[in-house]
Please model this.
Amino acid sequence: MIVQFSIIPLGVGVSLSEYVAKVIEIVDASGLPYKFHAMGTIVEGDWDEVMNLIKKCRDILMEDLERILIDIRIDDRKGAKNRIEGKVLSVEKRVKRTIIK
Model:
């Protein structure tokens, strides 16, 4: 499955990069395939792997914060692999051009 998630710290001002960096370090250390983008992170793995990863990210931020908001979107498809790149390649094939720069 692929999961897009973002964790938004509340009450810490307008710059969130300090907290995003903490989360990305945990995601990177997980060894799961992922893609970071401006509005969140996409991770691929099985249910337990991904949910445990999101929990770790949540737990590290809650050590320093009073409140966070977590947004999770899940695309769960039996037997599908390499979907982070595969979904994009499928669309690029149809439009006959690269759409991610």
DSSP finds three helices and four strands in the chain. The first strand starts at residue 2 and ends at 9. The chain has one domain: 2-95.
